[in-house]
Task: inverse folding
């Protein structure tokens, strides 16, 4: 069976204008009418949401005033790009507010629009804490150094010899982009460019003693502030970033073994499979 010739909208046609990823044409593939039409079954394929890719675009300028600034920037990049267990709260929903007026006495209402709003993104990262508690320690350092020390109510970078000349938001806030790729990992389905991002907590840092209970690995849900931009312009920027992530040949099944030889202390023993085979020979 051949694919329906016009299953996908031609790029730039109709609602696909400004979008990078291929999009089914809703004029085809409807299966819920008088009867199904299996000749167009491919055009009924469901959208399955892909996991977001988070990329750090700009780190807080205040990191450059701290000792080992490259460490702070690199740690933030790794935290948001490689370590999250989940990222939630990105939203691009439009809501329409209406005013309703009665139509007759039977209870019918006529609705007229009064406003359109974008839903605000409330971004939350979830991390599992690592050995030695670096996740909470990093966030605690970000808050006390760049935002505010709880004791003095001033950021601790203000106490450095190399002080900041101002405390505008780019001193303590980051910019990130969140990309949902299509199933081929080559086209951007949608993207959010979010600035003014900083943590609203360090993650819950608590202690306890209970000899009767199993030990715990803390998991932190840390919410970030943010101002989001969404649309064709952001998608175009995201597309250039996604194209810079070259996955050609990046097949995990072909990756070299992470160990390339048997340890010397193992080879020094005479109790193994290899030794037995040599003895028989």
Result:
């Amino acid at each position: 069976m051949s694919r329906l010739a016009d299953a996908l909208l031609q790029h730039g046609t109709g609602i696909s204008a400004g979008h990078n990823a291929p999009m089914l044409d809703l004029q085809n593939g409807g299966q819920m009418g008088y009867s199904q039409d299996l000749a167009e079954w491919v055009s009924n394929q469901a959208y399955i949401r892909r996991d977001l890719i988070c990329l750090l675009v700009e780190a807080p300028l205040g990191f450059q005033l701290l000792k080992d600034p490259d460490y702070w920037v690199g740690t933030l990049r790794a935290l948001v790009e490689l370590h999250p267990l989940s990222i939630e709260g990105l939203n691009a929903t439009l809501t329409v507010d209406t005013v309703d007026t009665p139509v007759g006495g039977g209870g019918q209402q006529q609705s007229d629009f009064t406003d359109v709003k974008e839903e605000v993104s409330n971004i939350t990262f979830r991390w599992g804490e690592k050995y030695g508690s670096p996740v909470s320690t990093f966030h605690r350092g970000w808050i006390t150094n760049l935002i505010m020390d709880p004791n003095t109510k001033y950021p601790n970078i203000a106490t450095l010899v190399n002080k900041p000349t101002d405390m505008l938001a780019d001193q303590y806030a980051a910019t990130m982009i969140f990309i949902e790729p299509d199933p081929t990992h080559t086209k951007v389905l949608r993207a959010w460019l979010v600035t003014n991002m900083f943590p609203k907590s360090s993650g819950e840092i608590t202690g306890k003693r209970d000899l009767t209970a199993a030990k715990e690995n803390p998991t932190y849900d840390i919410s970030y502030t943010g101002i989001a931009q969404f649309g064709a312009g952001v998608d175009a920027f995201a597309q250039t970033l996604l194209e810079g992530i070259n996955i050609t040949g990046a097949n995990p099944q072909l990756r070299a073994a992470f160990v390339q030889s048997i340890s010397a202390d193992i080879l020094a023993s005479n109790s193994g499979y290899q030794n037995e085979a040599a003895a028989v020979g």
Residues 53-254 form one domain. The two ends are 60 Å apart (CA to CA). The longest strand covers residues 108-118. The chain has two domains: 1-47, 53-254.
